[in-house]
Amino acid sequence: xxxxxxxxxxxxxxxxxxxxxxxxxxxxxxxxxxxxxxxxxxxxxxxxxxxxxxxxxxxxxxxxxxxxxxxxxxxxxxxxxxxxxxxxxxxxxxxxxxxxxxxxxxxxxxxxxxxxxxxxxxxxxxxxxxxxxxxxxxxxxxxxxxxxxxxxxxxxxxxxxxxxxxxxxxxxxxxxxxxxxxxxxxxxxxxxxxxxxxxxxxxxxxxxxxxxxxxxxxxxxxxxxxxxxxxxxxxxxxxxxxxxxxxxxxxxxxxxxxxxxxxxxxxxxxxxxxxxxxx
Length: 279
What we know:
CATH class of the largest domain: Alpha Beta
CATH topology of the largest domain: Diaminopimelate Epimerase, Chain A, domain 1
Number of strands: 18
Number of domains: 2
Low-confidence stretches: none
Shape: globular
Order of helices and strands: EEHEEEHEEEEEEHEEEHEEEE
Strand content: 35-45%
Number of helices: 4
Distance between the termini: 6 Å
Largest sheet: 18 strands, mixed
Oligomer: single chain
């Protein structure tokens, strides 16, 4: 089975294209094996690039623990780069079917290769029952939660997958490696949640770190950065346009307000290709 390793600012996945080969019979099992950083290729998960009846391609993503996610912002940028660079689609504007619907992507191409991608991520989901979360509010903004002897203020947003945003004074000193998994499995989030801690540098600039549902600490989370841009506007901490500094690199975000789409712009990088002996 042929695969390609790619990443969006360090959020790395193994990509398996099924236009020209059969899809793996058990992608959840494959995701666990191929994501292992000691015995496999090593990644935050597996993404299938598949034919679609309603778009240029369909994306399915599986976390490193084998659970299937609805959406991955860094992953969908890499899908667009794969489609263009490998000759499956040669348009600078394309559509990808995802777990949260069909997204439109605009490609920045240089020397015949995609360098950056701007994604219309669609409007955020703000109704608590649709996120889903049991936190109060539509949207739930700065809701207090007691967790591990800490009192946290959480803002919840969905970008097709659920996110919990916590504002802190210093992201480097916050114990995300313990708070992250505890909040991921908190009963307030019936489908678990991605956890982000955010430090506001200014009205157009933030730093953030991520505990990703099903994968743990990751260098970046595209949908999470989108959720952070929304949370910043809702809470009055940041403006409509921000740059988010993640451990793996920077993303540009823009959200005009309720009812409008979130736009995310960032790089996509191909690392290497190979063959996996098991399907």
